UniProtKB/TrEMBL annotation:
This is C2H2-type domain-containing protein. Keywords: Metal-binding, Zinc, Zinc-finger. Residues 33-60 form the C2H2-type domain. One of its GO terms (molecular function) is zinc ion binding. It comes from Henosepilachna vigintioctopunctata.
Length: 102
């Protein structure tokens, strides 16, 4: 039995064709919703909404007022506050941490 893809996880695959035929296509599934800017496709409408609002061509960033951390996502800032500063804030409170554009 051979161990392919990641030897640290020790996933038993009997052939490399299994990896290319079965596993890799699962990560490349497109969807009916396509971004007009970057042509990336999404399976769910909520996913493309978040992509357009926060990721694709967006310069909106959320900044930490205690250090130099910045992120495009509120969730990342929320995790940062808890992990680095041990502060628990709701997502509504985090909307006030939008970076100023200079």
């Amino acid at each position: 039995m051979k161990f392919l893809v990641n030897p640290n996880k020790m996933l038993p695959f009997t052939s490399i064709s299994y990896v290319f035929e079965r596993l890799i296509p699962l990560h490349n599934i497109g969807g009916p919703y396509t971004c007009k800017r970057c042509l990336r496709s999404f399976k769910h409408q909520a996913s493309i909404y978040n992509h357009i609002k926060y990721t694709c061509g967006s310069s909106t960033k959320f900044c930490c007022d205690k250090c130099s951390f910045a992120s495009k996502y509120v969730q990342s800032l929320q995790s940062h506050f808890y992990q680095k500063h041990r502060v628990v804030l709701s997502r509504k409170e985090l909307k006030n941490y939008v970076c100023e554009v200079i």
